[in-house]
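User: Last request for today: this protein with NDP, please.
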Amino acid sequence: MAYVDDILNDLKKKNSYETEFIEAATEILGSIRPVFDAHPEYEKNFLLERFIEPERVIMFRVPWVDDKGDVHINRGYRVQFNSAIGPYKGGLRFHPTVNLSVLKFLAFEQILKNSLTGMSIGGGKGGSDFNPKGRSDGEVMRFCQSFMSELHKYIGPDTDIPAGDMGVGGREVGYLFGEYKRLANIHVAVLTGAGLEFGGSLVRKEATGYGLVYITQEALKPRGESFKGKDVVISGSGNVAIYAAEKAISVGANVIAMCDSQGYIHDENGVDLSIIKEIKELKRGRISEYLDHDNKKKSAEYVEHDIIWNVDCDIALPCATQNELSEESAKILVKNGTKFVAEGANMPSTNDAIDVFLKNDVMYLPGKAANAGGVATSALEMAQRSSRLTWTFEEVDNRLKKIMENIYINIDKTAREYGHENNYVVGANIAGFVKVANAMIAQGIV
Ligand code: NDP
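Assistant: Here's the final one, the structure of the complex with NDP:
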């Protein structure tokens, strides 16, 4: 399809340094080609030209003072990519690898993910190259306050509602919200993932990981499979990984390996999640400390600087970061007989790795569908907050489950409709895109 190729070539020329954004755009645009034959009006309305260009990019200086009195300058960003179906929504990431390319790819993915939830939320993403690791609470607070002193001008409950992502958890959201409230003098749902005491929702913390397991269960069902008795490898040991592990274990899986950026722990008898929670959620420590704990099973090993995908498993859940699962890793998984891969992280598998999965009939659920439970529950948080109601854990969890089941039904149906049965890359991208495209056409050339 010449239209898509022209747009992609132009995008690569104009954004040649934005490798992650080019990677995401190549995957998405490549898989939505069939839509343009069915909808010639899209090309007539210059839809793709508009779709690939963020509506607004904000970039700013974030100066802050550390505990010793030294001054640091970081870069802050917010990419407001698309508001056709609702206000911008997407997390903030604080990590040294953050740059404009990473945030454009995340915001671009977020447009389609948010569309798939069935809720009225557009796509955005933001963050900073600030590294909260090893910083005191006071330093993190001063950084968050400085960051928000600029960002507050551009966000609002009906404009743009950020949330957490890597490096931004409950502590950071609390500090960011405190500063927003002071500057704007208004107590509204402007950041989701808020503490339960000031408007947060039950299940938000667990939502991405639980949602990942719910959608995977839904996809396993028609294949006559379930998590019960399966060996599962989960990369990462952060928010998404921990709650994916918790839910997987609760439905009978044996989670045998988890990692951080320095190494992985492997235990054929199943990892002890309470130890991982203590290390990561309380002490903010390294996964290598697992072996120092009073581990009743005593059968675990710690492997440093190796790829977690070398561990044999039935189900792989990449929940760490982008491009953590290469073509080589995908081949290892296939060789080891892994039949199911579902992504908790954003774009963890490279495009070459995805090709390996699809060619080898591995059931592959892409992140934009499989990890949408987090943002969906953020939207449930917004609904509770604006109605001044608080739903029970069970009520929010049931809604999350239903949303994830519907996402699976939608991407499966769309993949079939376009003649690509079982290809959930095509299913997710097309199902997410068509809704946004139709809204953009209805709103004219803006
Ligand atoms: P966290 O910061 O809580 O955890 C990230 C985890 O991944 C940490 O254990 C980290 O280890 C590990 N990690 C980072 N880089 C690597 C690497 N190169 N190799 C191996 N492990 C690595 O982040 P989240 O759990 O919140 O997010 C994880 C992913 O899920 C991201 O892609 C995020 O965008 C996505 N996501 C998150 C949502 C949410 O609700 N939180 C919603 C939807 C998607 P270390 O501590 O050593 O850095």
